[in-house]
Amino acid sequence: MAEAPAPWPIRTRERIALVNELDFRLRSAVLPSACRKQAPVLGAEFDAISNYAVSDRAAIAQLLALHEHPQAVAVAEGSPAAIAGLAVGDDILSINGKAPAQLPAVGGLTLSDRVHDRIVEQLSSGPVELLIKRGGALKELVIAPRLLCPGHANLSTARNVTSHEGGNEILVTAGMVDFTRSTDELALVMGHEFAHVFLGHDKAKSLGIRMQMERDADVLGAAIARCAGYDVAKALSFWDRFGARDKFAFLKLPTHDKASTRKQRLLAYVQETQAQCPLAAL
Predict the structure, then answer these.
(1) pLDDT in tens, 21-65
(2) Which residues is 153 bridged to in the sheet?
(3) For residues 99 and 105, what is the distance between their CA atoms, to the nearest angstrom?
(4) Which member of 92, 116, 131, 253 has the greatest number of CB atoms within 10 A?
(5) What is the homologous superfamily of the domain 42-145 according to CATH?
(6) CA 19 to chain centre
(7) 49-74 burial, b if ≥16 CB within 10 A, otherwise e?
(8) Residue 64: C-alpha distances to residues 54, 58, 73, 80 (Å)
(9) Is 90 exceeded by the pLDDT of residue 162?
């Protein structure tokens, strides 16, 4: 008998943890000096009961043990958050003495997003003190700053199979996470988006320039994934399945080559190139 799928909140947390781990490992695969700008990295993600519909909160609280305080739900191994001792399940009571409930509303950001962004913002000025609650006991943690190339990957609960970047933010949909069949494949996809950020790509008006940006991001993204410890050759099967979804997708996205062309370009890269890791130049 097939095992019953996990409830959607549990599955969402699994996706968040995977994207968070990849975020930290991919950013760590490039020396900060290779990028024009640097930014603090945290390596943790949070959740808050206020993120959910009021009608779902009682069930969510019971299923996830999520109550009045924002909670750490993903901590990447070796990250500043992990080194400081932050653990999954820790409730966040204050950030440098300020309670999460006191953080100002920012656009459409959830409380958990604001907690993450507040910590990263404070890391720009020095170590950050967190007051957490773990198993009923209060504990103080100090997160030390670490600079990497800029960028931050977020999970979207959307079901469409896509990922994209804007500014320093990368959005990976739940549909894309579920479409990939291995961490290697997802690393290749996310590496491409981080490459756009690291290279400082903007929305070029020229179709030719934009196409070259996409090609450059494919190759650099593969190098980033490889240096982060993922098997790029194994991940190339992603392009077979992605291309089979819509054989005419390249006509809808004229800035992108056909999936088969992208696969062949990356296959040549894998066969011909030995990257020095971590990447010292882009």
Answers:
(1) 999 999 999 999 999 999 999 999 999 999 999 999 999 999 999
(2) 170
(3) 13
(4) 92
(5) PDZ domain (2.30.42.10)
(6) 4
(7) bebbeeeeeeebeeebebeebbbbbb
(8) 15, 10, 10, 25
(9) no
- The tally of CA atoms less than 13 A away on the side-chain side of residue 149 is 30
Q: What is the dihedral of CA 85, 24, 45, 213, to 10 degrees?
A: 160
CA distances, 265 to each of 153, 233, 261 (Å): 25, 12, 6
Q: Where in the chain is the domain with CATH 2.30.42.10?
A: 42-145
54 token code pair: 């009021």
Query: Could you please report the per-residue DSSP string of 81-123?
Result: HHHHT--TT-EEEEETTB-GGGSPP-TT--HHHHHHHHHHHHH
Q: Which of 222, 258, 215 is nearest to 239 (CA)?
A: 258
Phi-psi region of 247 (alpha: psi -120 to 50; beta: other; left: phi over 0): alpha
- Higher pLDDT, residue 208 or 35: 35
The end-to-end CA distance of the chain, in Å, is: 49
Q: What is the pLDDT, as a whole number, of residue 247?
A: 62
User: From CA 70, how far away is CA 241, in angstroms rounded?
Assistant: 38
C-alpha 79/C-alpha 87 separation (Å) is 11
Residue carrying structure tokens 């996706």: 15
Q: Which two tokens stand for residue 255?
A: 């800035």
Query: In the prediction, which pLDDT does 163 show?
Result: 85
